[in-house]
Amino acid sequence: MSTWTEVPEGSPFPATNLPYGVFSYDGEAPRVGVALGGDVLDLAPLAAAEGLDGGHVFESPSLNPFLAMGRPAWSAVRSWLVELLEHEGYRDLVESHLVPQSEVTLQLPFEVADYVDFYSSQHHAENVGRIFRPDAEALTPNWKHLPIGYHGRAGTVVVSGTEVVRPSGQRKPPDADSPSYGPSVRLDIEAEVGFVVGVPSPQGVAVPTSDFRQHVFGACLVNDWSARDLQAWEYVPLGPFLGKSFATSVSPWVVPLDALLEARVAGPAQEPAVLGYLERQADWGLDLSLEISWNGTVVSRPPFAGMYWTPDQQLAHLTVNGASLRTGDLYASGTVSGPESGQRGSFLELSWNGTEPVTLADGSTRTFLEDGDEVSVTAWAPGADGTRIGFGAVTGRVLPARP
Ligand code: MN
Questions:
Q1: Contacts of 211 (CB under 8 A, 6+ apart)
Q2: Percent of the chain residues topping a pLDDT of 70
Q3: What is the residue extent of each domain of the chain?
């Protein structure tokens, strides 16, 4: 697209991105905006001024009403925005509805309905298998036949910037005779990509891989905070519970799939062949480059393109039993880890279960998170016209456990 906008080189939010979020400004009610360079485009008054059909959805304090409108409306609004940004004649109007991001507070962008977390990086699954089950096969027998996942806690999904209190709970180290209670001593992160459902599906009806784009609006960044000591003791046989449910952070901007079309890649070849309902009908691997910073030091650069299970397959799997989709459902990819040691998406893997400390720029070393530590995950993707599409960041700081 040609545009009159003058977004600085290197901004995550060029006019080819147009991610949606919810912002509050100057004491006014939170409402929907689109990130453009260093500004937020205030959609509600702009849509009202232009008489945009359905534009009232942008007055909402969440993206859900817009998400529920579905693919034709998402495309129509995007085309409308592109037209405004292409034609110089709209410049004054648009500029009158730009607010500097430095003056707004970004809110949780959508009301999370259900939250599912997958486990779809083969490198991550193999690393975890080697760490926790050194005498067994790294991958469980089901791993290449279905995208393994669990249901997380939607109510504790928080927006980037929200501080995370260190969780307390039960743990039992292997050499201890009995469990004890206290603050987690192995608090970790998981760098992931989340997919946001807009259009619901009826209960009892499976959603095929080919309908991915009709249901899923876009993607965001997810940090699945994980208390490894709590998790290790509680997870057999039903899976993650309190070691995960205390907090999950998401980035404030949801990048539309329409902004990620240039980032599509074929997912890895799958052998053995998957069952029919999991067969891919289109390329929905995504060439996203993640970066993890620990107190400002970049400690890992996980590549998303190699994820074994792609989001269209995850969607088909999570509905194949007839489970319905709801507007605002969030499903996360699972920890994104690549084949190299500098591409691991969790500190469990980066420190190899605490045996290989990570050195930060200030000379200090880490295995798991200390109180006061801050973690930030960012991501970039190739965009249209040679631009780069940024996801912004999901950032969080650890507060001490409550007494
Ligand atoms: Mn996870």
A1: 315
A2: 100
A3: 20-106, 115-399
Residue 321 to residues 98, 148, 210, 309, 336, Cα–Cα distance (Å): 45, 14, 17, 18, 26
Q: What is the third-level CATH fold of 20-106? A: SH3 type barrels. (2.30.30)
What value does the CA radius of gyration of the chain take, rounded to a whole number of Å?
A: 21
CATH number of 115-399: 3.90.850.10
Candidates 124, 145, 151, 317; catalytic one:
124
Mean pLDDT of 302-326: 98
What is the pTM assigned to this prediction? 0.98
Catalytic-residue membership of 56: no
CA 130 – CA 269 distance, rounded (Å): 23
Alpha-carbon gap, residue 222 to 240, rounded angstroms? 17
Region class of 102: left (phi > 0), else alpha (psi between -120 and 50), else beta: alpha
Ligand 1 centre and the CA of 57: distance in Å?
A: 31
Q: What is the pLDDT of residues 316-342, one digit of tens each?
A: 999 999 999 999 999 999 999 999 999
Residue 96 C-alpha to ligand 1 middle, in angstroms? 41
For residues 302 and 336, the answer to whether their CB atoms sit within 8 Å is yes
User: From the CA of 262, how far away is ligand 1's center (Å)?
Assistant: 26
- For strand 115-118 and strand 358-359, is the pairing parallel, antiparallel, or unpaired? unpaired
Does residue 186 surpass a pLDDT of 90?
A: yes
In this structure, what token pair is assigned to residue 350? Answer: 């980066």
β-pairing, 388-399 vs 191-197, is unpaired
